Amino acid sequence: MKASNKNKLRFPSRVNAFAVTRKTLVYVILIALCLTFIVPYVWMIASSLRTESAYLGNEFTLLPVDENGKLIFNFDNYKQAFEALNLGAVFLNTMIVCVVNTVANLFLNSIAAYAFARLRFFGRDNIFKVILFSMMVPGTIMLVPNYLICDYLGITDSLFALIMPFVMSVYNIFLLRQQFLGVDKEIEEAAKIEGAGPFYIYFRIVLPLVKPMLIVLCITTFMWNYSNYLWPYVVNSDPSLRTLSTSLAELMGTNYDITVQLAGAVIVSFPMIIVFFVLQKYIIGGTMAGAVKG
Q1: What's the pLDDT tens digit per position in 207-265?
Q2: In the chain, is it the N or the C terminus that has fewer CB atoms within a 10 Å radius of its CB?
Q3: Torsion angle of alpha carbons 160, 163, 165, 167, nearest 10°?
Q4: Whole-model pTM?
Q5: What pLDDT does 205 receive?
Q6: Which residues contact 114 (CB under 8 A, 6 or more apart)?
Q7: Is the dihedral of CA 47, 51, 56, 60 positive or negative?
Q8: Cβ pair 98, 222 in contact under 8 A
Q9: Under 8 Å between Cβ of 177 and 113
Q10: What is the pLDDT of residue 103?
């Protein structure tokens, strides 16, 4: 009996040691991943605050130092980057494209998703399968057809051309449809009994129930449009209608110092960093809600 009691006392300690080891390993991996993503960005910020001679003359460092290793903050790089990017007009263009596209995207995609989830019509499931199949087509393949359509409509070199091709997203339709399928039908039936119409049910009852996913898709759609480069570069040749991504690419192709170009990259990326840190709880919450309901 005494021997068995000793074994029972030892067993929890072994379990605790295993749990501590596993948790330590998880933290080590997470820290390594964080450093992998953070260190390049910190280096970019530090390099953007140096002179070009200091940048080219020193070895890798995460501090803004000059040739002699003295700490410096050369904010003149940011002044030149602001002017080269034409930041005021370019930022306004980007916000118009991102906001309008995000609002239209969520409105149209949510209606389409609700129709596929709740309405009964001929060929509904087959149509949805065809739409899902289109997700397998790479976006670059649609570049030429989209450009030809915009050219035929006469909307190239306009902000409308940056918005129209992306107001629908198969991915967003799929996610929202899965969310709508998870909503209890009894709630909608009760509203119908009370005399509520389909649009009232959709806007006032169903949409609030999938609010976490709507927030996630709002953020991801906004961020995608913010960083979209290829399509604005192809369809828009008017310098006054550049977005931040194309303006930054233009800056990278000029004779400005590399430190000025890095300052431009920091300026363009900074708003998205703020968006992520401010809204990260909604991103995580909405993703978890989607995982549970899906």
Answers
A1: 888 888 888 888 889 989 998 888 898 888 888 889 999 999 888 888 888 889 999 99
A2: N
A3: -130
A4: 0.80
A5: 86
A6: 176, 177, 180, 202, 206
A7: negative
A8: yes
A9: yes
A10: 93
